[in-house]
Amino acid sequence: MKAVIQNEFGDINVLSYTDIDIPKIAKNEVLIKVAYTSVNYADIKQRLGNKGEGAFPIILGLDVSGIIEEVPVNSSFSKGDRVIAFPKNGSYAEYVVANEQLVFKIPEKLSFEQAAAMPTVSILSYILLHEIGQVQKTDTIVIHSAAGGVGSMLVQLAKLAGIQKIIGTVGNLEKANYVRELGADVVCTYETFTEEVLKQTNNIGANVIFDSVAGDVTSVSLSCLALYGTLVQFGNSSGKAGTFKTSDVHSSCRNIKGFSLGTTRQHNPERLGPVAKKVLELFATNQITLPIAQVFNLSDAAEAHKLIESRNYEGKILIKIN
Length: 322
Description:
alpha/beta; Quinone Oxidoreductase, Chain A, domain 1; seven-stranded mixed beta sheet; 10 helices; 29% helix; oxidoreductase; NAD(P)-bd_dom_sf; Quinone oxidoreductase; quinone reductase (NADPH) activity; mRNA 3'-UTR AU-rich region binding
C-alpha cells in the first residue's frame, strides 16, 4: 500500500511517499481502508520531533474516515461499515489499524470528506466546552486561535449552546469575517484581546478562556480572566510553555485546567464514544459544519504541512487517500 513515512525528524523533506505492507489486525482491532485523513498541528510537532522520540519509520496523522475492510471474530463492526477512527500507528496511509474502542460508525448522509474533518477537533472541542470548561449560557468566553480547526469548532459549539458572548482571537484580522460567520460576537488579535475582553465585560473579565497557544498568551490571558474564571489549556502551538504563579490563582479563586485528547485516547478511550455519537449527529443534521480549507493528495502531504505551518488558512486541511 502507499503511505507517507519519515525516518528522521526534520522539515517537510523528511516525508517520503512510498510503498509499505498493509498492517495486520490483532484482538479487538479492525482494518480500515482510508478515504481521507486530516492534518493537525500535532502532526507538525511530531514530524519535527517536538513530541518526543519515536521508533522510525513513523507514519504521521491522528484520524481517518473510511470503510472497514477486516474485523476480528465477534466484532461489533462489519466489513463495509462507514466509520471515523483514531488509528493505532498514524493515518497517512491507504490502510490503517484501529482499536475498536476508537472506531465510530458514521451516518450514510455524512460524506467521508466532512467526516474526516471532524474526529480530533470536534470531539476535543465538545469535551473542552461542556466537560472541562463547563461553560454556562451567561458566560463570556475567549477562544484563542479561533480560525483554526479546534477554534472553528469551539466557536460553533458555543454558539449552538447559546453562550452569551463569544470572543475569538486571530493572528491576522483578515480571518475576522470567517470567525464572525462561525458565530463569534467579537474578533481581535493576540495583541489587543485583553483590552477588548475587559471592555466587553466592564472590567470583570472572561469566565472561560480556551488556550491552545501557550507561551505569552497564557500569562496575558490571566490578566483578563474573571474571579472564579477558568483557563482551559490544551496545547502550545507557539512552541513555548505558558507560565503562571500560584498567586495568580488562589486569591482570585481562578482555575487552570488541562486536557489532552491524545492522553484520553490512550488511557480513557471509553470516554470518547458518547461524545463521538453527539457530534456525529450534529454534523449529520447540519447543526455544525467544518469548512475545508484545502484537500491534498497523499503524495502531496509535504505541501499540506507547508500550508499548516504558514497559518494562512481557515478551517481544516485534509489529505485524500482513496
